[in-house]
Design goal:
single chain, about 500 residues, mainly alpha, two-stranded antiparallel sheet, 4 strands
Length: about 500
């Protein structure tokens, strides 16, 4: 009888802890069912817009809180650590990022060259015009956005290179094929919509480091950012309960917005299978294996299991930036050190895109295979190097992964005649690779926590003891807000001043 009551309590406790996840999964299923039912009625664009509106409003509300979360989390995390500790945390985090992205690229090359999904594609599709972007300008814009000239402007717009192009159609009378030649007449620096998160992140890190040097004088400012973080987290916690409804809206609208979805799945079946298989292998085998190598600890529990919920979250909302809160909450549920995940999570979200790297790699190989082009070893190496670099500095423009694909293809000499078909599957594969990124963010933070979590915890405990001893000598009361613990020290009769 006691075991039965314990079992009931365990089940009840589990349901309460995972009710939001279960409701979200139900919303995903209902979204697919709703899309299948409404597909037969051929809803108009206006009808799809209204179906998508609840999800759109949810995303707008969520994105509204992202900037204060990033600023407050990074500033408070960096300001409470010394510069030596910041260097160690950042170095290890970037090492894991590079290794994870490299393995994702190698896995994408292996699957694409083995499965050869593009060889079964014989039907030509209309080419969809991509934004023109030169490789050198991708990296130039990365540095421009990192070093912003106006932090207020960085909260609103992102710097990018704007081109004045002359497109000329050239017909080949022998093959009856038409190609488009692009000539760059001029280019200039411009600013577009969208927050420059890279610049905001770097500024917040430097701001926090400066605060850590003068801790006594900047204590008031630190309290301000701590209060901001608490307030925004409370708002987001309430907002997240609308996720099940938003998932129904976002998924149904995405599927309804694609014409002839059955034909799309058939024509891209092998390519999608290669990408999905690569993402699954990378998520559940490669990333845990890297965690095991870095930490010599079991990656299954709690890190990998704890990262599934934020992975699902990113898959649904299709925005890594908007998943910041959920990733931070996952790290907290696992039991990681707050000083570590407040620092590493924003860093990972802005730089670590191993799921995107795998997709970019598979897409470039697929494009070459659809054209019957034989990739040399030099071409394969070039694709791998460029995909690794671009995955860490994708430009802040729409469909940035597709722009990266076009950039790599142009560099290697792969024709872009069939790239238009990738737009049809962008909504699905973007969501799936986002889920892989979400899992990897938590695991990356777990690696850093495994190395430095106990060290920072010991430093905090030692600081508390020192403060306790100092305050006891003067008969003072010391309050430590970092751990929400108040130590009340009474004056000793034998104290000699």
């Amino acid at each position: 009888m006691g075991e039965l009551q314990c079992s009931k309590r365990c089940c009840t406790s589990w349901l309460r802890a995972n009710i939001l996840l279960l409701l979200t999964l139900g919303g995903v299923a209902l979204g697919f069912v709703l899309a299948i039912i409404l597909k037969d009625f051929n809803p108009s664009d206006d009808a799809i817009m209204w179906i998508n509106l609840p999800g759109e409003l949810f995303m707008r509300a969520l994105k509204c809180a992202i900037l204060p979360i990033i600023i407050s989390s990074v500033v408070t995390a960096v300001a409470t650590l010394d510069i030596k500790t910041n260097s160690k945390l950042g170095g290890l985090a970037f090492a894991f990022m590079i290794v994870a992205i490299l393995t994702a690229v190698l896995l994408g090359l292996l699957l694409s060259l083995t499965i050869k999904p593009g060889e079964s594609f014989n039907e030509q599709v209309d080419e969809k015009q991509l934004s023109y972007y030169e490789t050198q300008d991708v990296f130039a814009d990365l540095f421009r956005n990192l070093i912003t000239d106006n932090i207020v402007k960085a909260c609103i717009v992102t710097a990018y290179t704007d081109y004045d192009l002359n497109r000329t159609s050239v017909s080949d009378n022998t093959t009856n094929e038409t190609t488009v030649e692009v000539d760059v007449l001029s280019k200039k620096l411009a600013y577009g919509g969208g927050t420059n998160y890279l610049g905001v992140l770097l500024f917040s890190m430097i701001f926090g480091m400066a605060m850590s040097v003068e801790r006594q004088r900047t204590a008031v400012m630190l309290d301000f950012f701590i209060a901001m973080r608490v307030i925004v987290f409370r708002i987001i916690t309430v907002l997240l309960w609308l996720l099940p409804l938003a998932s129904i809206s976002l998924i149904a609208a995405s599927i309804l917005g694609v014409d002839d979805i059955i034909d799309v799945f058939i024509s891209l079946g092998l390519f999608s299978a290669a990408v999905v298989a690569g993402l699954a292998v990378h998520t559940f085998i490669t990333v845990p294996l890297i965690y095991l190598i870095f930490t010599r600890k079991n990656p299954l529990k709690p890190v990998l299991l704890g990262s599934l919920r934020p992975g699902l979250f990113v898959t649904i909302i299709r925005s890594s930036i908007a998943s910041t809160v959920e990733v931070l909450n996952a790290c907290d549920r696992i039991g990681m050190n707050p000083k570590i995940y407040d620092f590493v999570v924003p860093l990972s979200i802005n730089f670590k895109k191993d799921g995107s790297a795998l997709f970019i790699t598979c897409s470039c190989v697929w494009l070459a295979q659809t054209e019957g082009a034989d990739l040399t070893s030099g071409n394969i190496v070039s694709i791998g190097i460029l995909a690794t670099a671009l995955a860490m500095c994708l430009p802040g423009i729409p469909s940035s992964s597709l722009v990266a694909i076009a950039t790599i293809a142009a560099s290697v000499g792969i024709p872009l005649n069939n790239i238009g078909i990738l737009f049809a599957m962008e909504w699905l594969l973007d969501a799936l690779r986002g889920g892989t990124n979400g899992v990897s963010y938590v695991v990356n933070t777990g690696v850093v926590d495994a190395w430095f979590g106990d060290e920072l915890k010991d430093e905090t405990t030692e600081n508390l003891r020192k403060n306790e001893s100092t305050n006891a000598a003067y008969g003072q009361v010391s309050e430590h807000s970092d751990d929400d613990v108040a130590f009340k020290i009474t004056e000793g009769n034998d104290t000699k001043l």
